[in-house]
Amino acid sequence: MNTRTFSISELASEFDVTTRSIRFYEDQQLLFPTRRGQTRIYSAQDRVRLKLILRGKRLGFSLAETRELFALWDETPTGSMKQLQLLMAKIEEKKAALEQQLNDIAMLQLELDSAESRCREAMADLTEKTL
């Protein structure tokens, strides 16, 4: 059993986030430090949760989605089929959204190329007429 604890400044330094961000995640009911007077004491589980929050953020997960996954995790700490199915569904949603964004970017690039080509032709026409 890991009984190591962490201060807010230790976690902030380790994960390169501000203490304000960590307090925000606490306010959002994602982290649950104990208190010793005014001092927050974070457990190894809080450290893991912070790591997962930040990973989820990088992957485009909202805090609500992260909270939903944590709720399932808290029900069955060793993991469950329900948790894994939800995570897989969220991953598929993110991948589909990224694929759509890639398609949108490719279409926009084609439209910009076409507009640029028309502008160059119009400029060439104007240059010829003024000579």
Automatic annotation (TrEMBL):
<keyword id="KW-0175">Coiled coil</keyword>
<dbReference type="InterPro" id="IPR000551">
    <property type="entry name" value="MerR-type_HTH_dom"/>
</dbReference>
<dbReference type="InterPro" id="IPR009061">
    <property type="entry name" value="DNA-bd_dom_put_sf"/>
</dbReference>
<protein>
    <submittedName>
        <fullName>MerR family DNA-binding transcriptional regulator</fullName>
    </submittedName>
</protein>
<keyword id="KW-0238">DNA-binding</keyword>
<feature type="domain" description="HTH merR-type">
    <location>
        <begin position="5"/>
        <end position="72"/>
    </location>
</feature>
<dbReference type="Pfam" id="PF13411">
    <property type="entry name" value="MerR_1"/>
</dbReference>
<dbReference type="InterPro" id="IPR047057">
    <property type="entry name" value="MerR_fam"/>
</dbReference>
<feature type="coiled-coil region">
    <location>
        <begin position="81"/>
        <end position="125"/>
    </location>
</feature>
<dbReference type="GO" id="GO:0003677">
    <property type="term" value="F:DNA binding"/>
</dbReference>
